[in-house]
Structures are given as C-alpha cells and as structure tokens.
Write a structure and sequence with these properties.
Length: about 450
Amino acid sequence: MNYLPIFIEIQQKPCLVVGGGDIALRKINLLLKAGAIITCISKDFCSGITDLGKQKRIICIKKAFEISDINSQILIVSATNINTLNAQISKIAKAKNIPVNVVDSPDLCSFVMPSIVDRSPIVIAISSAGKAPILARLIRAKLESTIPHAYGKLAQIAGDFREQVKAKFSNLTERRYFWEKIFSSVVAEKVFAGKIDEAKADLQAQLDSSNESEMGEVYLVGGGPGDPDLLTFKALRLMQQADVILYDRLVSSEVMELVRRDAELIYVGKERDNHSVPQDGINQLLVDLAKQGKRVCRLKGGDPFIFGRGGEEIETLAENSVPFQVVPGITAASGCSTYSGIPLTHRDYSQSCRFVTGHLKDGSMNLPWNELALEQQTIVFYMALKGASHLSEQLISHGMREDMPVALVEKGTTPQHKVYVTTLSQLGDLVEKTEIHAPTLMIVGEVVKLREKLNWFENRA
C-alpha cells in the first residue's frame, strides 16, 4: 500500500484550505460534512465559497497566502493553480507534521482525499493513491448503487445494543457470531424496510434467547481455477466470515488474499505422492474444529465435487451431525478451456465431453479406454501429467487417431497461464522434453483446433 487508510476525527477542529475556486469548494464541502472549523484563504473566491462565508459556515480571508497562516491547524488542503505555492504549502505543513493534501499533486501530499460512500456511521473510502481518481469515482458509483442507505441506520442500532451484547457474551468470537447472525437476519431486512421499532424488538429477542456456545459450521467452497474474479458471491462471503481456512495447494495466492484477514490458515495441500495431511486427517479436523464452535471454510481449487474429494469430506461431517454448506466453483476444465479459447463442446467437432481423473485412489490409471477413444468427443484429463505417455499409448491402441489434437493448459486462468498444443502421438515426447509444471490440465479432441481462432485471453489488448 502506498497509503495507510485511516479516518481522522476533525469534528470542531481547525482546518485550513488555500484556494478559492470550485475545486477548493468541493474539498470544503467534504470537510464540513466531517464537522471541521474551516478557514479559507485566497485572493478571490467563487460564489459557492462566498456564500458559505456569508452564512458563517466557514471563515473567508481574502488575501495572498503567507507562511504565518499555517500554525495550529489539524489538517491543510492546498487547492490553488500555482504550482510553486502548492509546493511551498506542502513543505511547510510537512515540516510542522500537519497532514496536507495538494489537489492533483500526489507527490506533494502526506494524505490523499478518497472517493467516499457515505452511509454514516458507515463510511467507505476508495483511493487510487492519486494515480487514477476517475477510476476511484467509478468504483464509488458501483458501490453507491449496491449499498442501501439504511446500512447507516443499522449501524446506529447496533451501536445502541453494543453494551448489552458485550455483557451477554464473554468473548470476542461469540460477539462476532451474534452480530453476523443479526446482520444477515430479519432484523436487517426490517431496518431496510423502515420498520425500526420492530427491528429493535427482534434484536432484543434474539439477544435474550442466544446461547453462548453453539456448534460451528463447515463451508466446502470451490475457489475456482485461479483467477479471483471467477469466485461466486457466496464463496467470497463465506470465505470472509470463516474463522478457519483449510486450503489446498491448487488455491491461488490471489484467491487466498480474499479470505478474512484474521482467520487461522491451515495448509492441507496434497500432491500425487506427498500429502501434507492425509485425507482422513482432514475429514476429522473439519469435525473437530466445527465442534469447537468455529466456522470452517474448506477452500478447494476448482469445484469441491469434481475430483475435489468433497464428497468424502461431507460424508464424515454428516456422520458426525456437523452442519455444512457446499459452494460450487468453476472447475478447472471449464476455466482452463475457456481461457485457452477451446470450447469443450461444438456442433461441428464434439457433441459430448468427459471429465476423467489421471489416477485413481490406488495410484493406477485403469480407465474405460474403449469408451474414451471415440470421435466427436472431448476428454478432459485431470492430474494426468505424469501418466501422459501411458495415456496416449492406451488411447491410440484402443482406436483413437494418432493425430488427434491435444492441449496441455498449465496454471490456467492465472497470470502464468500457458498452453502447449500437440498431437496424441507426440504427447509423451512433449511432456518428457518440456518443463511443464502442475497444475496442468489435458484436453483431448478436435475442439483443440479452435484455439488458433478463439484464443481471446492471450490475445487480449
């Protein structure tokens, strides 16, 4: 981060604005919302600033800026069109350790003025560190359209009940559980509908009936193939409210950046011949953590129910009466093929698609080769990199053409996305002579020919 995002209390505190134009007026209006006592210095004032002076809402001093004008202010804004003057104000303010903002000159600022979504007491600030303020405003516009104004009222009600909740629950975790339950319950819906008294009554009733200790819950969440933009809304919500995250090797670092900052992270990744935690151990750990009252996110690459061992994990949860949710994710087959410009089905090339794991539970590759070696079908092999030579030999021996196109997609949808295209007969040589890293997905079928025309991801501007 170029700047630490903080909120400064300037209620009834002296602030200085140098400049009298429309830009200075915008900054003044923002400071007034925060309750500042504002002095504005300029040789000339726009009509808006003049009106604020006449209304006694700010102090207007019509003169040139002098060094002595900076004294005991809590904050300074320089909004003039004179570069040398802006630089002088910045230098003096910094020397006196007074926060200073120089409009459109981030190099001269000790703080920047963000775009703001105001749902007081909820306030959201969006900053581009002065690099792209228009982009920050566009993001603000998106947030404005999705966050109801009633969130401010909901926050005020929560503040009114805060001491009661602290007295009811003995630790921070239990309080957090209670508030998250409230904020996603009918209480919030009644606030949004303007039924404030009913909302308060419901909140009080839930507070009176809550128990301090409850069973936790497990969320099996599909983290997708790597690109964090492919997460579902529900996946993101559960990732950000979980107390513990059990994550796999295939979950990208970009996706991991989106989990709750204070969540406990437990790595349980597995490679073909190296399991950091055995599957039975993972299953039991999910049960144990939930019985401690924790909300546990089992975060998996791709989709939990497509070669993700999710079925085995929820079997154990169900046997132990642990509540759980399953959130589908974009599986590697869909994500990798799409980002490679390879449709898995196409009327002219493939009317069916099969997902196949490259090795079974015992490590073998005992597959129904006769069913796989068919024309007009796409086969997607997961975890088949090490067995590529055996795979190609078996498909050819069971009737598949030697020149059948094959694509290997390495680290699909991520910035390291790379695609190798070959034929079935040349597959073994490619894997042997090329350094290809897991995770790599294999796509076999005529649809691979379409990549040359449809390769949008690597050819994008």
